[in-house]
C-alpha cells in the first residue's frame, strides 16, 4: 500500500473478535499502526506513548488501531497490562500485514527471520492513505507527536 491508495474495507478482528471495518470510522482519520510483538519493550513504549497522548489524538480527529500477528488472547493481555484504550487487530493469518506490505525478512543478532516492520499508515476521512511513517522513522517513545505532526 502506498500514499494515495484506498485502504481495504475490512481490516480484521480485534482482541474481542469484533470485526473492524473502515466504514466504522467514517469522517475520522485512522492511525493504523503495525508493530512486531505484544509485550516487548519497543512495542510497549510505542503503545504507552499512544495511550498517554490518546486524548490529544482524539481531539485532533484520530482513531488509533494497532495491528500485530499475535492472537486475541495475547492482545487482551497486552491491553490489560498497559491499559490501552484502543483496539488491537489480531492478524494471525498475516492477511493485513501482507496487504500493507509490512511483513518480510528481518535480521537481528545475526539471525534472519520473518516478521512485521514497525510502520504507521495515516488514513484520511475518505479511507485513502495520506501518509506513511516507516520503520526507520518511527520513534517508539514519541510516536503520538509524529502522528500529530502533519
TrEMBL record:
Enzyme class: oxidoreductase
One GO MF term attached to the UniProt entry: thioredoxin peroxidase activity
KW Ion transport (keyword) present: no
Domain Thioredoxin: 1-150
InterPro entries: AhpC/TSA (IPR000866), Peroxiredoxin_AhpC-typ (IPR024706), Peroxiredoxin_BCP/PrxQ (IPR050924), Thioredoxin-like_sf (IPR036249), Thioredoxin_domain (IPR013766)
The entry's keywords: Antioxidant, Disulfide bond, Oxidoreductase, Peroxidase, Redox-active center
Active site per database record: 43
Superkingdom classification of source: Bacteria
Job description of the protein: Thiol-specific peroxidase that catalyzes the reduction of hydrogen peroxide and organic hydroperoxides to water and alcohols, respectively. Plays a role in cell protection against oxidative stress by detoxifying peroxides and as sensor of hydrogen peroxide-mediated signaling events.
Quaternary structure, from the entry: Monomer.
Name used for this protein in its record: thioredoxin-dependent peroxiredoxin
Lineage of the organism: Bacteria, Pseudomonadati, Bacteroidota, Bacteroidia, Bacteroidales
Amino acid at each position: 500500500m502506498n500514499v494515495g491508495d484506498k485502504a481495504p474495507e475490512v481490516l480484521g478482528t480485534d482482541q474481542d473478535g469484533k470485526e473492524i471495518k473502515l466504514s466504522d470510522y467514517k469522517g475520522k482519520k485512522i492511525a493504523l499502526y503495525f508493530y512486531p510483538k505484544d509485550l516487548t519493550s519497543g512495542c510497549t513504549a510505542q503503545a504507552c506513548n499512544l495511550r498517554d497522548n490518546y486524548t490529544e489524538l482524539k481531539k485532533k480527529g484520530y482513531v488509533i488501531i494497532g495491528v500485530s500477528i499475535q492472537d486475541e488472547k495475547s492482545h487482551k493481555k497486552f491491553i490489560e497490562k498497559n491499559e490501552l484504550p484502543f483496539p488491537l487487530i489480531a492478524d494471525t493469518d498475516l492477511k493485513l500485514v501482507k496487504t500493507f506490505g509490512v511483513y518480510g525478512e528481518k535480521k537481528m543478532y545475526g539471525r534472519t527471520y520473518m516478521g512485521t516492520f514497525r510502520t504507521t499508515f495515516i488514513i484520511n476521512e475518505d479511507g485513502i492513505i495520506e501518509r506513511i511513517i516507516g520503520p526507520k522513522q518511527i520513534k517508539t517513545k514519541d510516536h503520538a507527536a509524529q502522528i500529530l505532526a502533519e
